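Complex 496.
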Amino acid sequence: MRHAHTVEQVRAAEAELAGQPLMDRAVAGLAATCARVLIRRRGRVYGSRVLVLAGSGDNGGDALFAGARLARRGAAVTAVLLTPERAHPAALAALRATGSQVTSDQEVGLADFSRADLILDGIVGIGGSGPLRPAAEPYAHQPRRGVLVAVDLPSGVDADTGEVAGAALRADLTVTFGTHKPSLLIDPGAGYAGPVQLVEIGLRPPTAPVEALQHDEVAALLPRPAAESDKYKRGVVGLLAGSERYPGAGLLAVAGALHGGAGAVRYQGRAAEEAVRRHPEILLTAGRVQSLVVGPGSGEDTAESLDDALASQVPVLVDADGLTELARRGPRALAGRSAPTLLTPHAGEAARLLGGDASAEQVAAARLRHARELAARYGATVLLKGSTTVVARPDGTARVNSTGTAWLATAGSGDVLAGLIGALLAAGLPPFDAAPVGAYLHGLAGRLAAGSGAPITASDIAAALPAVWRDAAQGDRPQEGRPQGRRAGNVAGLGD
Ligand SMILES: NC(=O)C1=CN([C@@H]2O[C@H](COP(=O)(O)OP(=O)(O)OC[C@H]3O[C@@H](n4cnc5c(N)ncnc54)[C@H](O)[C@@H]3O)[C@@H](O)[C@H]2O)[C@@H](O)CC1
Ligand SMILES: [K+]
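Predicted structure with potassium ion bound:
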């Protein structure tokens, strides 16, 4: 599990360890990583050109101290001070003691930015607020050929949310201290971080408000049939999906559910004839179900299907047309539910559910905030789809998934996901497990289907599910180059 803590939690955990050399530990890890990067790229640290961008706080201090360590190994280090009168005094003295160049001339800094082998972004860390200050902003747009290592997090990214208010520095690698920050796991911020390396400094933060399941946790959660299993023990999922206008959505939801480990799929949409022709194993009769999926391609049947689903005593997943209808009815429509409800909107549907309080673009730019807001308003678990999938509970706890690939953005992809998660719900997983496990498998299936990069169809995603399920069920740690998260292996050799 990757745990991500808020700035407030990090500060409190740091306060508990007052007097311990936290900064030394952070700097040692940071400098060791930078040295490894230089050795990989240039064969040695000695003679490498290193640029330190140092802001006014401890983040700048970390970068300056790390620069001093690299200078002592023979690197040619230049430090550019963004706020010269407030640079970390001890760290600046340590760097000066190595004879390294220190300047506050941003023209020099920008020129060095383009030339350096390695750049340390120590402009601002967890003490940041708002967009980058004017002195720092040009670095976000400056071309470079070297590796940019973000210290703790990329400057310009909001630590707690991953929101990017203006420009931000795009890192090849982030070295973060003590714990992950939510912004390192959630886009758009995560997209600026590159692979993330965690340096342990002894912090003991409380329960994480944001976490990301990894291979082992997914393996532990995957339902497995036992010797005495029958279809009801494994779980029967009911699909209220597919209409005369949109029969394909129903078929894709069936495909997702069948590959999601359901004991049986009970199909109750208008594409029954075609569905049973393609998937002879499905049931068309009415009968007992342990979860319901309502909405994919429901078309003209949506209102009635949603009524039926919400009146049931089983977990219900509402997707697509079901969400549009739910947005029309508002949160009160879920008030009488005794069993869990899971909503799976994309940004546009989320905007609709929020009743016009945010646009789709605003939802996508502030994914965690809006997923939490929706979960709280509707009293339901919410899976917000997109470049990072965020699953939020009404109490604000969240799980994020980044196994996905942009190739997943294809028609019908969400229908497969709905069926898949519906099957996991039928197997008895609570929504807060079923949703991230489904997103994890779906993302990996998209990657597997796309291979080294090719357009895929939703049917390809469904077809790839058994292979990724097999792989995930083994629960081994992903090898280097195998996707554990979208970020892993982005830059060859930088992620370890
Ligand atoms: N809290 C901890 O447990 C530890 C923190 N460490 C380091 O300390 C950092 C936090 O240090 P600080 O609290 O001094 O805060 P920062 O160094 O993150 O930033 C504070 C300064 O940045 C400026 N600033 C704020 N927003 C800005 C923006 N948008 N653009 C440009 N400048 C901006 C402010 O003037 C402020 O003085 C961490 O990110 C980490 O690098 C580590 O040394 C290890 C331990
Ligand atoms: K930084």
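The first helix runs from residue 7 to 16.
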